[in-house]
Write a structure and sequence with these properties.
Elements (H helix, E strand, L loop, with lengths): L9 E4 L4 E8 L2 E8 H4 L3 H5 L1 H14 L1 H13 L5 E4 L6
Parallel strand pairs: 3-4
Antiparallel strand pairs: 1-2, 2-3
Length: about 90
């Protein structure tokens, strides 16, 4: 099976300071997190929780295709039920 993203929903996880989204490999659900530092460049934005959430969700939406591509690539190297994508994964 291949990793698919049939549900476009995403949310900001304040505990992890990351955007959470789900992928599916057949009947298996895979959790992904993209760290805020991978989505924002401004240190000031990272300090303001409300602004950070909005900026991260907006950046995620703008970069959704490339985020899904990175998620698929990461998943192909070792299948687990949860992944955290960092800025280094997007270089």
């Amino acid at each position: 099976m291949t990793l698919a993203f049939p549900n476009p929903s995403r949310s900001f996880d304040e505990t992890r300071n990351a955007v959470r989204f789900m992928g599916h490999d057949g009947m298996f659900q895979i959790r992904f997190f993209v760290e805020a530092s991978a989505l924002t460049k401004s240190d000031a934005a990272r300090r303001e929780v409300g602004a950070l959430k909005a900026k991260c969700l907006s950046a995620f939406d703008a970069l959704r295709t490339s985020i899904y591509d990175v998620a698929r690539e990461t998943y192909s190297h070792g299948r687990r039920d949860s992944y955290t994508l960092t800025a280094a994964d997007f270089r």
